[in-house]
Amino acid sequence: QATIYHVGDPAVAHRALIGNADDFLNRPAASFPTSLATWRHGERNDNIATVSYGPQWRVLRCNLTAEILSRLGSLAPLHEEVAQALVADLSARCGGGGDVAVREPITKAVFTLVTRLCFGDIVDDSQRHAIGRVIRDSIVAAGKLSPGFDGSMLSKLANWRGFRRISAVLKRQPKLYLPLIAARSQSQSQLCGGIVHPYVDSLLDLRVPEDNGDASGPGRPLRDGELVGLVFEFLGAATGSTAACLEWTLAHLIDQPETLDKLRVEIDEEADAGGILSSKSLRGGMPYLNAVVLECLRMHPPVPIGRDAKRWTDPDKFRPERFLAGGEAEDIGPAPGPKEIRMMPFGAGHRHCPGVNMGMLHIKCFLAALVHNFDWALSAEDCSSGVDMTEQDGFIKIMKKPLSARVTRRT
Ligand code: HEM
Q: From CA 143, how far away is CA 135, in angstroms rounded?
């Protein structure tokens, strides 16, 4: 089994991932659940996270960035639609005002947005439900493998029960994705919500380097196994972390009503001035919203470096003000700068998350809609004890006790 070293010191992380970035061009074999699906019928079918640094990685990553992630400016109508659907769903669940378990509606809303970006408008509710279950099951199953699992025969034997479970889950994917990919290849001219071409269309058009390294021709199309892996990566990467961040943020806002009030003032003012879900508003118009999301990602990141007491004042306190002008972290953004790493929720170095801007935008879009349209308070169950902020160990750090909140529609 591979030995895993956890780096908790930001200076060491900086020296490794920025100073010696070229030594960390590749990930350990099984650090993402997607990597378990790479070998099929003797063929390696990589996605962006699993492929070795080199020409194929560059082509796949550039395609995702150029075709989807750089088109954030045109997402507003889609954001508007999915945020309205979430507001309608929560309104129905809370009635005139009541306790609601928020994880399910939030995850459903994020997943609807992400499946539309991936496949366009061809996915119906039952397909979306089935795909969502496979992704959730695979993330849960991956979280149960021992931390030293590296995909080697020895570690598969040592983890045989967990490995069998995750292999069975991943085998369900081709049956779900391939018919949708085939349908897209028939109707490629349709835009997603009339705005952007879905990710799958770009993958169908893409040519990657030949397996034998011959760079003289145009390259080859992606194999079915690669398409399945890339779709799984896109859906999984963009859903789990976003939904987890939203649930954590609501938990902190309920725990600190004064922070919620301050955020609402900013959001309501922006709404009065013409709309909160435009790309301009979400990207720069609401500094406190940005600070709230950064503070949540600092405290509950997938990569744990944001609570070093030598670098943060009261690191365990939720205090978005630290990210505002004049605060101790006014220059800190979601991705680390070249000089130091104080937090790295989206990773660092050559393999940092390419979806950082899209992830931030999705979180802010849903959060702005939720705070603008609803009052949030402790559920009857949490009234005496407060919100339980315990983290559950796993591939993504989610709340151990799913958040239940008293939700009331604002008039
Ligand atoms: C809150 C949202 C998100 C968080 C917290 C997050 C976090 C991360 C982290 C920590 C990594 C590993 C980085 C490293 O090894 O240094 C990663 C990689 C990756 N993420 Fe994200 N991510 C988010 C959203 C997204 C979105 C929206 C997409 C795109 C659709 C995306 C696509 C990817 C890909 C493709 C990789 C692998 C990159 C490579 O190996 O070159 N992520 N993400």
A: 12
Task: Please report the atom of ligand 1 found closest to the CA of residue 51.
Answer: 40
**Whole-prediction pTM:** 0.93
For residue 378, give the H/E element and its range.
strand 374-378
ipTM of the complex, rounded to two decimals: 0.98
Q: What is the pLDDT of residue 380?
A: 96
Q: Is 94 annotated as a binding residue?
A: no
**DSSP 8-state secondary structure symbol assigned to residue 281:** I
Report the residue among 119, 353, 363, 367 best suited for mutation to probe ligand 1: largest number of ligand atoms under 8 A from its CB.
353
Q: For residues 16 and 316, what is the distance between their CA atoms, to the nearest angstrom? A: 26
* The dihedral sign for the CA sequence 71, 25, 336, 233: positive
What element of type H or E holds 118? helix 103-119
Atom of ligand 1 nearest to the CA of 301: 5
Distance between CA atoms of residues 204 and 63, nearest Å: 11
Could you read off the pLDDT of 318-361 as tens digits, one per residue?
999 999 999 999 999 999 888 889 999 999 999 999 999 999 99
